[in-house]
Amino acid sequence: MQLIDGKKVSGTIKERVAARVQELQSKTGKVPGLAVVLVGEDPASAIYVRNKNKICEQMGFQSFTHNLPADTGESQLLALVDELNRDPAVDGILVQLPLPQQINSQRILEAIDPAKDVDGFHPVNVGHLAGGHKTLVPCTPAGIIEMLDYYKIDIEGKHAVILGRSNIVGKPMAFLLLQRNATVTICHSRTRDLKTMARSADILVAAIGRPGFVTADMVQKGAVVIDVGINRVDGKLVGDVAFDAVAKLAAYITPVPGGVGPMTIAMLMQNTVTAHERIHNL
Ligand code: NDP
């Protein structure tokens, strides 16, 4: 069994991004700018936002943070998004989810300029991804493809089974694996006999948010197991995969923490550089 080390792979991506930022700065005098918008005081979101700011600084980006109170109205947030869309120093806009209930998240995501949509959630970018075209792709599934490539894991012709069909992970993961010529099955809460489906996977991606859901009897020997889940159990972070038992069978497996998690933020940085390059025709 080989452990897929997300910290190591994300480190190489961050080095690549930082080098590109330096190169851009010396060529054009400009660096990519990422704006992060946080509404309310969800503690997990606040930690994410702090980490994003720290990494932006490490990468040499310009970083803009907008902390809005929990009772912010939808029109106020739309006005801020509009301002960021027009700000030439901002190449990427990330509105941290979840948003308070008085705000329609989809309306906000659709208001972001697709060229600055570094989360890849705007319908235009979702459409490009579904069409198999180059676009800004959601960070978590994009990071998983980077990990598979880093470890030279073949995707073409393999049966990839994805557990979970969210717009953030499951669905974009399916499109990316399909683009790489995998045969893809998506499972969800209404799937009949999920265990048999999972057991037929060469590449199994678990993204459902249920601690230890994937047990050894759901995994075929030699499978590649990617655990996207982040669950807090007794103060500890655990994934969707029962790691110890499944690791005995898997050819490759990602740990939690230290697997997919670090990739997500590295891909956000990569997407911001890509957005900057496209906006400035570089
Ligand atoms: P969602 O809650 O949006 O989606 C969960 C999906 O899992 C749904 O499609 C749901 O099915 C399916 N599901 C839930 N329970 C079952 C079950 N018992 N059997 C089969 N399918 C089930 O979650 P996300 O996609 O946003 O996140 C999934 C996990 O990944 C979470 O733990 C989250 O914290 C983590 N995550 C980690 C990231 C990282 O950077 N590592 C980034 C993003 C998420 P249905 O559609 O039928 O309801």
Determine and state the CATH class of the largest domain. Alpha Beta
Main beta sheet strand tally, sense and closure:
6 strands, parallel
Distance between the termini: 42 Å
The arrangement of helices and strands along the chain is: EHEHEHEHHHEHEHEEEEHEH
Pick out the low-confidence regions: none
| Helix percent band | 40-55%
Number of strands: 11
Strand content: 15-25%
Number of helices: 10
Task: Write up what this structure looks like.
By secondary structure, the chain is α/β, with parallel strands linked by helices. It folds into two domains: 85 residues, Rossmann fold (3-Layer(aba) Sandwich), CATH 3.40.50.10860; 123 residues, NAD(P)-binding Rossmann-like Domain (Rossmann fold). It has a six-stranded parallel beta sheet with strand order 1-11-8-7-5-6. A three-stranded parallel beta sheet has the order 3-2-4, with helices on both faces. Helix 7 links the parallel strand 5 and strand 6. The radius of gyration is 19 Å and the shape is globular. The structure holds NADPH dihydro-nicotinamide-adenine-dinucleotide phosphate. NADPH dihydro-nicotinamide-adenine-dinucleotide phosphate binds next to helix 10.
